[in-house]
From TrEMBL:
The keyword Metal-binding applies. Residues 195-297 form the Fe2OG dioxygenase domain. PANTHER family: 2-OXOGLUTARATE (2OG) AND FE(II)-DEPENDENT OXYGENASE SUPERFAMILY PROTEIN-RELATED. Belongs to the iron/ascorbate-dependent oxidoreductase family. Gene3D superfamilies: B-lactam Antibiotic, Isopenicillin N Synthase, Chain (2.60.120.330). It comes from Deinandra increscens subsp. villosa. Keywords: Iron, Metal-binding, Oxidoreductase. The keyword Iron applies. It comes from the Eukaryota. Pfam families: 2OG-FeII_Oxy, DIOX_N. GO terms for molecular function: metal ion binding; oxidoreductase activity, acting on paired donors, with incorporation or reduction of molecular oxygen. This is Fe2OG dioxygenase domain-containing protein.
């Protein structure tokens, strides 16, 4: 199979990993259709109508906040509608995203484009199961106002700024609800940790993958932020999450955005809110796009706990957390995450 020039060398990386693997298999035999796990349950995430947060009726506001917090505790994931982001903004951003990924591979890897944030596969993978069959731009929002970041993609700048600004306000409004639900949350101080200069946006593309069903679009992981807002493909499924110790497939909802809790909120809430493992599967025939907004603090920010006296995690900075993740991935090929920061018993 010859990949077109817009695609990164994922097949080449996969072949090399297979050849290096101790349980080497014939790559030719792996060129078969991708199948989903037999009997995998398809679920609809809890759906929250955010109109309730703006209601003049106090009971409706309380009920909406309760739904958000309950889903964050029981699922770690939920969907939102009536979130205040105009449909036209979402459409424009998706159009620009598709245009960006349709560019030749050499153009996407050009120096300076979106702060050199282009990446593909998994450069630390040591076996096929650690490879992510995807390409992405993981963009620091501190740079999106810089004209020099866009190269030939001039129309992307204005759209990305509008999209990121809307997502920032939405993410912080949800975070305020989660903070307000727990005793000890210092709202003002907490909000200062996350602003437009500390957050990230990831533009994802999952090319068609006609080889092994064991290949992930994105390997199983938890998010290392406070929370994530995902604008996923309206029709092509692929998101799966761990629920009750088993994988379930998330049914796409074209009218909703997906929100999930990250590691930092789990630590801050003392495990009240759950950062749940999730992954993306590949599709043999069609590509899939998604955009993730990550609500992050500065690297110097300390991640405490709303119940410091009874915290099950030691205090750490976001920078320390990220560094530990990088060390673990480099050493073992996978993220360990919060268990590294449990208080010694």
């Amino acid at each position: 199979m010859i990949e077109c020039n817009q695609n990164p060398p994922l097949l080449q990386d996969y072949t090399q990993l297979v050849n290096q693997s101790s349980d080497r298999v014939d790559v030719i035999k792996q060129h078969r259709p991708v199948y989903h796990e037999p009997g995998l349950e398809v679920c609809e995430l809890p759906l929250v109508d955010l109109c309730g947060l703006l209601s003049e009726n106090e009971d409706e506001r309380v009920s909406c906040a309760s739904e958000i917090c309950k889903a964050s505790s029981e699922w770690g994931f939920f969907q939102i509608v009536n979130h205040g982001i105009e449909l036209e903004v979402l459409r424009k951003m998706r159009k620009e995203q598709v245009k960006l990924f349709e560019a030749p591979f050499e153009m996407k890897t050009a120096p300076g484009l979106l702060d050199n944030s282009y990446r593909w596969g998994n450069r630390t993978a040591t076996c096929p199961k650690q490879l992510s069959w995807c390409e992405a731009f993981h963009v620091p929002l501190s740079r999106i106002s810089d004209d020099t970041c866009y190269g030939e993609f001039n129309s992307l700048r204005e759209v990305m700024q509008e999209y990121a600004g809307a997502m920032q306000e939405l993410a912080k409004s949800i975070a305020r609800v989660l903070v307000g639900n727990l005793a000890g949350g210092e709202r003002g101080v907490w909000e200062d940790k996350c602003n437009a200069s500390t957050c990230f946006m990831r533009l994802n593309r999952y090319p068609p993958c006609p080889i092994s069903p064991e290949v992930f679009g994105l390997v199983p992981h938890t998010d290392s932020d406070f929370l994530t807002i995902l604008h996923q493909d309206e029709h092509v499924g692929g998101l799966q999450l761990m629920k009750d110790s088993k994988w379930v497939a998330v049914k796409p909802n074209p009218d909703a955005l997906v929100v999930n809790i990250g590691d930092l909120f789990q630590a801050w809430s003392n495990d009240v809110y759950k950062s749940v493992e999730h992954k993306v599967t590949v599709n043999r025939e069609v590509e899939r796009h998604s955009i993730a907004y990550f609500l992050c603090p500065s690297y110097e920010s300390f991640i405490g706990c709303c119940e410091e006296e009874n915290s099950i995690y030691r205090r750490f900075t976001f920078g320390e957390y990220r560094s530990q993740i990088q060390e673990d991935v480099k050493a073992s090929g996978h993220k360990v995450g919060l268990p590294r920061f449990l208080v010694s018993t």
